[in-house]
Amino acid sequence: MNPTPPPPPSSKTPPTPPPPSDSTPPPRRKKEKPKEAQTYSIQCTNCAAPLNILGGGRVTTVTCQYCNSVLDMNQEYKVLSQFNDKFRPVVPFTLGMKGKIKGIEWTIIGWVAYKTPEYPVERWSEFFLYSPLYGYAWLIYEEGNLSFSKRMRDFALREWQDNHQPHTLKYHNKHYLLAEEPYSVEIEFVQGELSWIAKANDSIRCWDYNGSKRESLSIERSGEEIEVYLNERIDPKRTYASFGVGKDKQTKAKQSALDEMFEEESIEQSEQALSSFVKGTALLVAVLLFFMISSAFTSKTLVSNKNSMPFTQNFTVTSDAFVSQVEIKAPNPTVLNAMRLTLYKSGKKVFYIDQHTIFSKDNKFLSTWQPKDYAVTISLKLQEGLYRVVLEHNRKLQIGENVSVEIRQGVMRLSYILPLFIIMLIIVLPSLLKNMLSSNAKKFVWWSVAGVIAVALWGAGALVFVFVLYFFIQPIIDGKGLGGDRDE
Amino acid sequence: MNEFDTPFKSINCPQCGGALPIHFAHAKLAQCGYCSSSIFLEDEAARLAGYSSVLAPKPSLIELNTPFTYNKKHFLPVGMVRYSYGRGSWEEWWIKDDSSDEWWLSVDEGDMVLEKLVENSEDREIFSNPVIGQKVGKEWLITEIGKGECEGFVGTLPYRITIGQTHKYLHLSGYKARLKTLELDATGMRSYEGEWINAMDIRKGW
Known about the structure:
Distance between the termini of chain B: 12 Å
Number of strands of chain A: 26
Shape of chain A: elongated
Number of strands of chain B: 16
Strand order of the largest sheet of chain B: 7-8-9-10-15-14-13-12
Strand content of chain B: over 45%
Helix content of chain A: 25-40%
Shape of chain B: globular
Number of helices of chain B: 0
Oligomer: heterodimer
Structural class of chain B: mainly beta
Number of helices of chain A: 8
Radius of gyration of chain A: 43 Å
Strand content of chain A: 25-35%
Largest sheet of chain A: 8 strands, antiparallel, barrel
Largest sheet of chain B: 8 strands, antiparallel, barrel
Helix content of chain B: under 10%
Structural class of chain A: alpha+beta
Largest interface: A-B, 54 and 54 residues
Strand order of the largest sheet of chain A: 7-8-9-10-16-15-14-13
């Protein structure tokens, strides 16, 4: 496959041949593995100050700590620019510090300070970390808060670009939500080694996406290049201790906007809550739909009359599932109140109703008859069998005073579904309360509930006080006593 | 040693007689672990090609013949070529997985790419004037252009390589964070396809 000629045999004296492999294998050569990256020193080509080079092969520039000159490491340390007269932030970390983050030892090899042009007071520092085994990462320092940031090369950047920077995205099965509108940051100050050429006031466009567990994704565009970083908040105390930051240099972490955002609610929690909410609602809707559809199929009109009066008709109830419903409609309340309806089964009266009287053989009925109503609906439980309905009136009806009656079987009533709905709501609500509300909102809810209970108790106490005062104390004050009347 | 670690066959170094474990039938080059000789593997024979240079030790998560686990899969590095890009170097590890499939793992200071050799679907003319951002076919975009010079190798390799041998490469990025690498040297063009992996997800051993 490969026609490349082999290199000529070395003239070096070959080592004593070990015995063939079928006997005891020879001892293997031990290669000494370095535990740390190789470092070396250079002299600044601008001020001749000694500079330690700590990073690996991907480092391209080093900025002198003394004269702030940016030296190009690929062009014999040519001075590219200078960061003189630039604001140098006060930070607890310095170049060369070593410490562990996520169990990996990192060396701080570079430092970049940023500001936002829109809000120049917003400043933060990012320290370039190097590990010979794990490459490069960033330690972000902002008002005492620390984050660990690592470039993620397996992010589906093409899709992100094609979707025009969506508001939500998924990465490694986690959801992230765009925290705010994209913003620009500018480089304010640089020191040490970097894997790119930094220039003062270089602008970077950023999209920040918040995830759960204090993680966020930063997508940063600088020129034509787009890089994605996964940021994770880390414990400042532990990090300071690991990097050997003196207590006098440690800054107490301030609650940043990011903190507040993270505290408010994590996406995962929202998603979980939303999932519970959607599931619960879907279940309720499914149950309601089931009953509505069932009702459409089970409901059957047995009797329907609009004209003849008095009216009598035989009908057969074929199913006693759910309830039967009798509906009487009149042109005015006077006519309705003159009506009386009787149901017979096997010649025996099982149900009777008029404006004033209701009789039911098994007392399973519900009526809405009110004196000023134009219609009445009576729900009752009718067993299967042959029935006769008789609708009569106790006053003469005028022409046009038509009364209609309709009897249906297998009618679903809302009151059947409502308790079920309430029970399901009780089941779903705790889950919603647990997951959907942020901790602050939960506190608010519980304090509100406690407040309502306190007010209710106070009100009840006040009522008892008034009651006692009025019925027990006042008679005593009035000199009547509890048995005052009797004394008189 | 278990089945995963067991080589496909073992031959003896023609220079020192030391055992050379061969994990793939189509391995073409091996470095003797005892005398550092380079050995061409030709069917059933092993021919001395000369001494390899001894690579400067470099800290690495991946070690020759030391299994590691990634994404619940087990891998065994059987060979490595180190390439220089000027100020630094990167390593290409030839590895086999627990299904005896072969992979290439590129390790460049914490950045890792796991790829498989695939058939060439691009013309080698692509190397004539490549530009970052250039679209290749329907899916791919050129995201990196570079060249490497072989500094040395260890273990066994599927092709012959000599110290100082150079190659050009192109990195193409596709959808779903897919990565394609095209390599061109005197022997022709090779294509690899795979994905970026996170070094923090690598675990030594099983």
